[in-house]
């Protein structure tokens, strides 16, 4: 399911990996590190953006694995 950004968000005592627009998390992990590893692999594969949220809900890290127009000449 390419084209939908991936988020790592806190959930209970762990961390969810989910895609934008999906009502259910793709996976749940005990640590944020595990969730980021899984989410990074998926974002790389699908060439989408990864957004990692902190416990406060604020985005604390963003990585884009898709087409990056800022890297083009011009």
How would you summarize the topology of this molecule?
Blueprint: E1 6-11, E2 14-19, E3 27-29, H1 32-46, E4 49-53, E5 59-64
Parallel strand pairs: 1-4
Antiparallel strand pairs: 1-2, 2-3, 4-5
What does this entry look like structurally?
The chain has 74 residues and is α+β, with helices and mostly antiparallel strands. Helix content is 20%, strand content 35%. A five-stranded mixed beta sheet has the order 3-2-1-4-5, covered by helices on one side. A hairpin with a 2-residue loop joins β1 and β2. It is globular.
Q: Helicity, in percent? A: 10-25%
The tally of helices reads 1
The total domain count is 1
Cα separation of the termini: 32 Å
Work out the radius of gyration.
13 Å
Overall spatial form: globular
Give the gist of this structure:
With 74 residues, the protein is an alpha+beta fold. It has 1 helix and 5 strands. The mean pLDDT is 91.
Based on the model shown, name its key terms:
5 strands, DUF2188 domain-containing protein, single chain, five-stranded mixed beta sheet, DUF2188, 74 residues, alpha+beta
């Amino acid at each position: 399911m390419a084209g939908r950004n991936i988020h790592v968000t806190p959930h209970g005592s762990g961390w969810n990996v989910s895609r934008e627009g999906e009502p259910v998390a793709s996976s749940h992990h005990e640590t944020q590190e595990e969730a980021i590893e899984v989410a990074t692999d998926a974002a790389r594969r699908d060439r989408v953006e990864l957004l990692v949220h902190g416990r406060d809900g604020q985005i604390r890290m963003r990585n884009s694995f898709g087409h990056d127009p800022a890297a083009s000449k011009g």
